[in-house]
Write a structure and sequence with these properties.
The chain has 262 residues and is an alpha/beta fold. Helices cover 21% and strands 27% of the residues.
């Protein structure tokens, strides 16, 4: 019994450590319609802070914010589950103040966000709405969907601006790509899955114990609806542990189809 208890204690200690071990990633990805003028366009994609819970999630957010202060980007995209308990609002407000970007911070809500998240985010929040920003002489649309998973996808299709040179959609759930018409958006940013949060190694790959099934767990995938990036997120939910699913902050560097990716 003692060896089993010792192994369990070591495993729990590692999982608590991994939950704070933020991976700071720079990912170059091709976007089919990206104009040459926007080659090298950068986005800091963050998700799933789950602030206010009994966890160390505030530490992971602090690491990501500090990185953003070093690595200025064109825009910051936050894809939901940011504030799970109202007591985390002050930390969210501080992070929003400190993020550095040339063209603003844009956010959507997730299924765990409390009402105070709307007040903290203010005009940065997009719920089935969008904005078009002139960047390097090109029209960049940033659209955001609300946290509901049912009928809103139809509204998201209608939001897509056919005249925009680059269409970006923020949505909490990655499976939005299954609902949208082909080529609705050029880039779709999502979170929600935490990379499984607690994963077990098997001969067939990771057995992911949170959300169990998904088409797109993490990273970049090409889908008919558009290029998808799924963040593993920064926080934890239900238990303050991660295993084989480190929290992440991702700096996306967009490249034209004809450009080289290093």
């Amino acid at each position: 019994m003692q060896p089993i208890c010792a192994a369990a204690g070591i495993g729990a200690a590692w999982a608590l450590f991994e939950a704070q071990w933020v991976e700071l990633r720079k990912v170059e990805t091709r976007v089919d319609r990206l104009p040459p003028e926007l080659d090298g366009f950068t986005i800091l994609h963050l998700s799933d802070f789950h602030l206010g819970t009994a966890s160390l999630n505030g530490r992971t957010l602090e690491r990501a914010v500090a990185w953003s202060e070093e690595e200025e980007v064109d825009l910051v995209a936050l894809t939901g589950d940011l504030l799970s308990r109202r007591r985390g609002r002050a930390r969210l407000t501080d992070a929003l103040r400190r993020f550095r970007s040339r063209h603003g911070v844009y956010a959507v809500l997730g299924n765990h966000d409390v009402d105070e998240a709307r007040f903290a985010l203010g005009t940065k929040l997009h719920e089935d709405s969008s904005v078009v920003v002139d960047i390097r002489g090109k029209r960049v649309q940033i659209a955001g969907g609300g946290p509901a998973k049912d009928w809103r996808w139809r509204k998201l299709e209608r939001l897509a601006d056919p005249d925009a040179d680059l269409r970006i959609l923020l949505f909490h759930f990655p499976d939005v790509t299954q609902w949208l018409a082909p080529a609705s958006y050029d880039l779709i940013l999502a979170g929600h899955l935490h990379g499984g949060q607690i994963c077990l190694p098997t001969p067939r790959g990771k057995l992911r114990l949170e959300h169990l099934r998904a088409r797109h767990w993490e990273g970049v995938d090409e889908t008919p609806a558009g290029t998808l990036h799924v963040s593993r997120g920064l926080g934890t939910s239900f238990v303050p542990f991660r295993f084989l699913a480190r929290p992440e902050a991702t700096k996306l560097v967009l490249r034209c189809p004809s450009g080289s990716i290093q």
